[in-house]
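Propose amino acids for all 139 sites.
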């Protein structure tokens, strides 16, 4: 991970989430803001979960997002906005439940966008914007 600076973009990379398959990084940070790339429900080792039910895919995508968030020096309580893309409104109640489990008392702003399809046949993709405490700040 690069050093903190208010005048440079830090690229966040962790082995606790799957490596990107395109020309992007898991997240970028600038000062105290973190922008997490869309996380599909791919396991950290790169194996696919497209054959699993929506709930299992949602839990994996959220686990990936939370792993990248931790690598950036943040946590669920500092998430400002989440956007989730799901392949059908019938998944909305399950997503609400799994999301509440993952975020507990944190209630970030959120958009859930129904889409017709996602890459590799996945049922969900999640991205987020978060804050983080800089090294010289008290928690």
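Proposal:
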């Amino acid at each position: 991970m690069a050093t903190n600076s208010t005048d440079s973009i830090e690229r966040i990379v962790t082995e606790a989430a799957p490596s990107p398959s395109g020309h992007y990084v898991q997240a970028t940070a600038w000062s105290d803001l973190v922008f997490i790339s869309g996380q599909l429900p791919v396991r950290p080792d790169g194996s696919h979960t497209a054959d699993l039910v929506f709930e299992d895919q949602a839990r994996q995508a959220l686990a990936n997002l939370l792993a990248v968030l931790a690598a950036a020096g943040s946590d669920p309580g500092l998430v400002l906005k989440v956007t989730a893309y799901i392949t059908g409104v019938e998944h909305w109640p399950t997503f609400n439940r799994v999301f509440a489990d993952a975020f507990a008392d944190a209630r970030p702003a959120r958009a859930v966008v129904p889409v017709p399809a996602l890459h590799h046949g996945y049922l969900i993709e999640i991205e987020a914007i978060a804050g983080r405490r800089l090294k010289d700040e008290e928690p």
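Strands lie at 10-12, 27-30, 33-39, 79-86, 109-114, 124-131. Helices lie at 54-71, 92-103.
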